[in-house]
Amino acid sequence: MRRSTNVCSDIKGGKDSNTVKANAKYRFEGGTVPHLSNTQAERIVSAVKDTFCSVHEKTDTKPKKVKTKAEAAPKPSPTWSSEADIFKRWAKANGSAADKAAVAHVTRVHGAFGGNGMVDVYTDWTGGMFGSHTPDGRLVVSAYQTWMPGTGSGLVTVYDADGEILANGNF
Q1: C-alpha–C-alpha distance, residues 9 and 27, integer Å
Q2: Which of 3, 19, 37, 117 is 20 to 30 A distant from 127 in Cα terms?
Q3: d(CA 145, CA 87)
């Protein structure tokens, strides 16, 4: 979350796009993610801008009233978009009709940003690899490969609601 907050701060601070991308690349690489491509950094910036930063954008253009001390007290921060939400928003905006339908069943994504090259995508389907949703799982893999193209050494695995593997593939 801190990395996304910093990327959002760069965007809202008016830094040029090359600086924002370079800073995002620096923030998200290292440790178990030794290298990010410029394309991956650009997609991270786009995802953060379209989801994480939009949580804080003002939608009310009415003049603000002066707040009392009690009203001005800090409030809990909003719930941030999850990796699954970011993936779903991307699919909704960019995916084919089949991608949109398949990705709509994603319930959780783990490892998309700053992971170790292993991404787990969980869905609400059942039946495992030999069930009727294996083709749908392959669609989710394909959509993920388009959303986050990698070096080919990463592995995305799609699971059903019971934790059974539906499909996997390199990205």
Answers
A1: 13
A2: 117
A3: 11
